[in-house]
């Protein structure tokens, strides 16, 4: 039920005409309170889209009454005009919703092609249409409206103890650490302040969205928002709430990987035996980003040599002669050399598990990646033209 | 004329049966002196192949009398047995060449699949065949014998003032900085000591092979050797000699990019206006490695937004609002935003030029890369299986 699973939220998703093909392209999520507490995490790319600059500013106020999201255009690298357009979008939402709404509490998120101005003549009227369509079961429509090359919409919900955390996500390409390319809105009816939401959201994204690496490409528009209405009247214990947020993020992150552009395999890379968690993450990302390995996995080839050559490019602490690698639980590399018979490895399924043991400690991390396919090349060589 | 263009060298390339398809797979290059001065640069991958460990040791002695190279197997991640095989290979060359030759002065290089032991029952007899075939015009055959997925063999020569620098290279995949994946042997008949050779070789590789990035994947086997026979009796000035070595390296590096696996475009990325050369190189590499941009260029799509998103992931000093990007000399991005009409960009040719202006200084660097194609995926998903 997406962003309207939690009490206190309404949402809508409509076609404003931003996309040439007429598909839904505008989503509105409204927090009807009583609380407007919120937290946000944004791309670490230094080239940030106008809506990211805007929403970072909004989040400093720690209150978010609504989020407006569009697909069909990223509004990134669009200069002062792009920022003005984002501002005008928030103003329009405040005006249409009326009452106590003001633009400074309205977050904006955009996704699509970089370097193109949004068609404001379509977007602004679309906000009126979306506002008129707001409903307590509009979460699904909102999730559909933020899709770009996504083949399916992504939602997740956890309910317990009288409160709920629910969310929606989009993202299929430009998926890489810090954050994966995506827009995510998570809502809850728990009654928690913004500082608590921020702590729970950062803890959750650090081990979920930040550990997805589909194609090594970091977006200009990544946005993850967590909004709390307090409408359930429940005040969950922090650990319980944080775990619920983590579960929703993890579920959505897995759905992003499962729908990555052109991918035929989801690759679960678990690095174990690391001296530090940072070492484990660095090694996992290096493996996830290795184009040659991604091709090998596409070809169902348990080419562990490419895993070792990827590990060898990192600064992590390890001895090359003590590295072990398993593919789908067959230890094809032991002590940096030939291990069990690679013909024992079956790679027919969609999920491929790589375990890299650095034999140098007890820390670990899991990174999710994808294979590299001709379809990925096709989709991304034809995307804007 | 490859490695035999310079006086004092003989070479051979033969089929030893290491490759299943019967193609040439063993090369031998012999320095007949009077000098045996030599220098070498090796992969910075921490997972190094047995022949890299061996040859690094040989180079510490600063004298190299011969180089034996095989394709058809990388002898990487092969444990103690792999190192014994490399040692046995050098011993065999010393024994077959006889006289003053000793294994400690014989460099070994291998290329091919990682994690497989070499067929020594074929390689060792092959050394006898190769030694019998040594000739002063064997450079071409040697260059052919080190090919793996290369579609053409690569040689380059510079002659001036009575002395010559010539070389051969192989490499088509796993091409990335520090060094590009490849084997390179360069010879000269200039009479220079090993320290001078080392200085000239490091200066040359730093701005040539180290600035090639075909697929972001760093090999376990990269080896670049420079051997001087002194046979010309000429002692060139350092600057002249260094420039000749740089020219040969640059020529070979361009040939590597031009023959990269599956590539349909060579991408010349020039970063200008950088505060430091390191910044320029970091930005250039980030652009060269961006899979989405590589796909866009394959599709002849001047998608400058992907250039900016790649620049944004670096630590280089710049202001996002002052970035300018030209594709084939059309400034499609000015001041971090939309610039000249992207329809003015023609990308029909094999070479595509990207200029990224950080507007933050006067340093620059050129990185060469390739596009990403379905053929690259195909070639590398089927390579070992």
- Assign the structural class of chain A, choosing from mainly alpha, mainly beta, alpha/beta, alpha+beta, or little secondary structure: alpha+beta
How many whole angstroms does the radius of gyration of chain A measure?
21 Å
Strand order of the biggest β-sheet of chain A: 9-16-11-15-12-13-14
| CATH third-level topology of the largest domain in chain A | L-amino peptidase D-ALA esterase/amidase
Any guess at the CATH architecture of the largest domain in chain A? 4-Layer Sandwich
Q: Tell the overall outline of chain A.
A: globular
Oligomeric state as shown:
homodimer
CATH superfamily of the largest domain in chain A: L-amino peptidase D-ALA esterase/amidase
Give the number of DSSP strands of chain A.
16
Helix content of chain A: 25-40%
Q: How many domains in all of chain A? A: 2
Largest interchain contact: A-B, 68 and 67 residues
If you average the pLDDT of chain A, what whole number results?
89
Descriptors for this entry?
multifunctional enzyme (chains A, B), Arginine biosynthesis bifunctional protein ArgJ (chains A, B), 10 helices, Arg_biosynth_ArgJ (chains A, B), alpha+beta, Ubiquitin-like (UB roll), transferase (chains A, B), 31% helix, seven-stranded mixed β-sheet, homodimer, 385 residues, acyltransferase (chains A, B), 2 domains, L-amino peptidase D-ALA esterase/amidase, globular, five-stranded mixed β-sheet
